[in-house]
Amino acid sequence: MRFTGKSVVITGATGGLGRAAAKRFHDEGAHVALVDLHQNDLDAFLQTFDTGSKRIIGIEADVSKNTDVKKYVNETMAVFGRIDTLFNNAGIEGSISSLEDYEEDTFDRVVQVNIKGVWLGMRYCADAMRKSGGGSIINTASAAGLMATPSLIAYGASKHAVIGMTKSASIELAPAGIRVNAVCPGVINTRMMRSIEEQTIPDNPEEYVKAVSEKTPLGRYGEPEEVASLVAFLASDEATYITGSSYVIDGGLLNA
Ligand SMILES: NC(=O)c1ccc[n+]([C@@H]2O[C@H](COP(=O)([O-])OP(=O)(O)OC[C@H]3O[C@@H](n4cnc5c(N)ncnc54)[C@H](O)[C@@H]3O)[C@@H](O)[C@H]2O)c1
């Protein structure tokens, strides 16, 4: 299997994209460290794996806190002895609001999680990856990092920042054999889209789904497993010459 003997850290692991990636890497033989905010959610998700599996652990951590990021890296190193891949995926959408009405606290939190959390993950995982001669970091940006997102001012800014950090990190970490790429999903069928649908059209969120699906050339939302396929590719030895790139996975939406 592609990831036998490899160790993968996934942040935002109990969310839609995180769960799909966790299943994919575990199925392909990896040791997987799941990172998310609440231990009870992690424990419930762990129950869905073969209970005899010693290849998967859950670590409660807030990616925006330096001490928590150090903790998830140290715990993964203590249990699995190495980190080969970081799927730096935890993120929040903030709120849907005009830029004049946007709450400052919400703006700050989006920046803390979506920008600082991604930087801290790269910072401490890069240290660990250097010890085993290299690795692969995949940051979750968004189509929102490449286009205007009216009413999502902080989210759009944060995802542009993720793409910028990905480019800078790819150059700094290349001499250590660490590749850094980003994925830019369009609309994917997870809790985050439920939140955006309900905030945008509270009376009829289905209307949002219909309108966005119709606008998308492939005619539907993406599924988390489709993003997990791209992430697994970027982590694999089939992608050894790819770094500093941002991969759009959006059913054609950006070009529509
Ligand atoms: N769903 C989409 O359409 C879509 C599109 C583009 C990008 N994304 C990005 O994909 C990533 C995953 O989102 P999702 O769609 O799976 O949504 P989700 O809400 O299902 O999952 C996000 C996960 O991140 C976790 N998280 C939030 N803040 C955290 C913190 N401070 N520390 C640790 N964990 C934290 C949440 O608990 C949750 O499990 C996000 O970065 C999101 O911005 C999603």
Q: What is the name of the CATH architecture?
A: 3-Layer(aba) Sandwich
User: Can you tell me the number of structural domains?
Assistant: 1
**Strands, total number:** 7
What's the helix count?
8
Query: Tell me, what's the shape?
Result: globular
Question: Would you mind describing this structure in some detail?
Answer:
The chain is of the alpha/beta class. It has one domain (about 5-185, about 225-255): Rossmann fold (3-Layer(aba) Sandwich), CATH 3.40.50. Helix content is about 45%, strand content about 15%. It has helices at about 15-25, 40-45, 65-80, 105-130, 155-175, 190-200, 205-215, 225-235; strands at about 5-10, 30-35, 55-60, 85-90, 135-140, 180-185, 245-250. The chain has a seven-stranded parallel sheet with strand order 3-2-1-4-5-6-7, sandwiched between helices. The termini are far apart. Nicotinamide-adenine-dinucleotide (NAD) binds near residues 17, 63, 140 and 187. Nicotinamide-adenine-dinucleotide binds near residues 16, 63, 90 and 117.
List the helices and strands and how they pair.
Blueprint: E1 7-11, H1 16-27, E2 31-36, H2 39-46, E3 56-60, H3 66-80, E4 85-88, H4 104-131, E5 135-140, H5 153-173, E6 178-185, H6 191-200, H7 205-215, H8 224-235, E7 246-249
Parallel strand pairs: 1-2, 1-4, 2-3, 4-5, 5-6, 6-7
The chain binds nicotinamide-adenine-dinucleotide.
Provide a compact summary of the structure.
The chain has helices spanning 16-27, 39-46, 66-80, 104-131, 153-173, 191-200, 205-215, 224-235, and strands spanning 7-11, 31-36, 56-60, 85-88, 135-140, 178-185, 246-249.
